[in-house]
Design brief:
Blueprint (H helix, E strand, L loop, with lengths): L2 H4 L9 E6 L8 E9 L2 E12 L2 E7 L11 E5 L3 E6 L4 E8 L2 E8 L2 E9 L18 E8 L4 E8 L14 E5 L16 H10 L4 E5 L8 E2 L7 H18 L5 E6 L1 H11 L5 E5 L6 H15 L8 H5 L2 H5 L1 H6 L5 H5 L5 E6 L7 H11 L7 E5 L26 H14 L4
Parallel strand pairs: 12-13, 12-15, 15-16, 16-17, 17-18
Antiparallel strand pairs: 1-4, 2-3, 2-9, 3-4, 5-6, 6-7, 7-8, 8-9, 10-11, 11-13, 11-14
């Protein structure tokens, strides 16, 4: 997902981390969770208070926004009251303990909202997450992008029954995450979409390799601060070379989500992949894509949507972040038009980060004609391919579904058509 660009759009509803003087042994120590009603939506807030020597360390997370650990101040803490100030977002939270809850006001920029917190952490259901033991074999592997000094660590998953299969008929898929440093499961908002995809494919005859992004998880080396999509593309290319070198599979393909979809087209244009699957791949110039993203989110949030590409380019963060400076000028049209291998391009019609009505028509127009290609828009799916209400990222964490079963089935069926397996 395009988190580097999208993070600037998130509501500034807080996280804080601070150490302050408190009352040792207070009954309010622990974790407290509640829902903040704002702009017609509900955002989860989690307040943590932990004794740290003679002080109390306090953190307030907004997990629906993926936000944690932004500095703040604990002003007061007793057995029945708490007061927190968050200078970075000009916010405060003051509450008293009554009837088993913290009941108080969260105030930002002078606008107060009631916020009640219950003791404990929110328990989320993730029914699609597979549980061990798996009916297939997995292997921890590493491969290297020597040019960039990066060693990538990942999980190679063999399909169920691999030992009895004809190896030349077993396709393998390299999985490439979206923007931002992500682990091999593309873990986001307590979902693990790449783990779910790998499990589903393994149960349906397809091998996968998913890996931690450079300098993330068990992967080491490689510049991150100045890295662009081209750098991450070289990491993925090394993964495809590694899979070919094993000699253990037939067709070697690439599945990419969001920025990973752009990388899949870049690899295909360079004839590195036998086939590609793109989940919400950008198909227009970066500044156009990101300005449209801002406008769609603002529109869905009830605000005026009038961001121009030039206004987007002039934002301070765009000028300061090397990835964004490169991405706003990247136009994927050349890579898409030079892609000759089979392509399955998917998008959800409620994706507000990579808009389907902007990007899928461009893919259809640019992609060379082939009976093996499939371009498909899915109704009611968001950027993570979850069934959703609005498509806003603030819904991602609250949705139990990790990825649409129809999408999983369609990807497997399409890959098997390439090897004449059903």
């Amino acid at each position: 997902m395009n988190k580097k660009a999208f993070i600037t759009l998130m509501l500034s509803l807080v996280t804080l981390a601070a150490s302050a003087q408190g009352q040792p042994g207070t009954a309010l120590l622990g974790s407290w969770t509640g829902k903040l009603k704002v702009l017609g939506r509900s955002l989860t807030l989690v307040l943590h208070m932990e004794q740290a020597g003679d002080s109390v360390r306090v953190t307030l997370d907004s997990p629906d926004q993926g936000a944690k650990d932004i500095a703040g101040q604990l002003n007061f803490l007793s057995d029945d009251s708490v007061a927190v100030r968050v200078p970075k977002v000009n916010a405060t939270y003051r509450a008293r303990f009554r009837d088993g809850q913290l009941k108080g006001l969260f105030t930002q920029n002078g606008f107060p909202l009631p916020l009640m917190l219950d003791k404990g952490l929110e328990q989320l259901n993730r029914p699609q997450h597979p549980a061990q033991p798996y009916p297939y074999r997995t292997e921890e592997v590493t491969f290297s992008n020597a040019a960039d000094g990066a060693t990538l660590a990942g999980t190679l998953t063999y399909p169920e029954g691999y030992e009895t299969m004809k190896k030349s008929k077993v396709p393998v898929v390299l999985m490439v995450t979206g923007s931002g440093q992500e682990n091999r499961d593309e873990e986001v908002f307590d979902h693990r979409p790449f783990l779910v995809i790998a499990d589903y494919m393994a149960r349906h005859g397809i091998a996968t390799l998913r890996y931690d992004d450079r300098a993330t998880g068990a992967s080491v080396g490689g510049d991150v601060k100045n890295a662009t999509t081209e750098d991450f593309m070289r990491d993925a290319a090394a993964g495809l070379d590694y899979l070919r070198g094993l000699g253990a599979f037939g067709r070697v393909g690439c599945l990419g989500h969001s920025e990973g979809g752009a990388i899949a087209f870049m690899l295909a244009a360079r004839k590195k992949a036998d086939f590609i699957v793109t989940l919400a791949a950008p198909a227009v110039k970066g500044d156009t894509l990101l300005a449209a993203q801002v406008n769609r989110v603002m529109q869905l949030s009830g605000m005026t949507a009038n961001m121009t590409t030039e206004q987007y380019r002039q934002q301070q963060e765009v000028q300061q972040v090397p990835w964004l400076r490169w991405f706003i000028d990247y136009n994927p049209s050349a890579d898409i038009s030079q892609t000759r291998c089979p392509v399955f391009a998917l998008n959800g019609d409620r994706d507000c980060q990579v808009l389907s009505d902007l990007n899928l028509p461009a893919i259809r127009q640019l992609l060379p004609a082939s009976r093996k290609n499939l371009v498909k828009e899915y109704p009611s799916l968001n950027h993570l391919f979850q069934h959703c209400t609005t498509g806003l990222p603030t819904e991602y964490r609250q949705i139990e579904e990790t990825i649409s079963p129809e999408v999983l089935s369609d990807m497997v069926s399409w890959i098997h058509t390439l090897t004449n397996r059903r």
